């Protein structure tokens, strides 16, 4: 794609909306991950008795291990949410923005005067057209 197409993409309000929506989702999911991860770390640091306690009476599974396993599974789910959103909404918006920019580029090229035939341009460049 040409630089003009990239400029049209960046100027498209749909592109700005796409970037904002994608960024908002990414930062929201990152905040969820950050809060859950550091909540576990802080619980380990300041309440080790809670982390070491058993999930239920007679169980060999501790709350800390269960919380850690939950985080792994939950973070995979959050990743799947982002990928699903990216594959459906964000890819469709991206395709629409690119199609608009390419269509505008094609339309502007149609309005431009025709270029000199390639043979004449080569002759002019080599000085043979004198």
List keywords for this structure.
82% helix, 130 residues, rod-shaped, mainly alpha, single chain
Beta-strand segment tally: 0
Note poorly predicted spans: none
Radius of gyration: 28 Å
Oligomer: single chain
Mean pLDDT figure = 85
Q: Helicity level, as a percent range?
A: over 70%
Q: Main beta sheet: strand number and arrangement?
A: none
- Taken as a percent bin, the fraction of beta residues is under 5%
Distance between the termini: 36 Å
| Backbone shape | rod-shaped
Class by helix and strand content? mainly alpha
- SSE string, helices as H and strands as E: HHHHH
Task: Tell me the layout of helices and strands.
Elements: H1 3-11, H2 13-46, H3 48-52, H4 63-111, H5 118-126
Account of the 3D structure:
The chain is mainly α and about 130 residues long. About 80% of the residues lie in helices and about 0% in strands. Helix 1 (about 5-10) crosses helix 4 (about 65-110) and helix 2 (about 15-45) packs antiparallel against helix 4. The chain is rod-shaped and about 80 Å long. The model has no long low-confidence stretch (mean pLDDT about 85).
Short description:
The protein is mainly alpha-helical and 130 residues long. The protein is built from five helices and no strands.
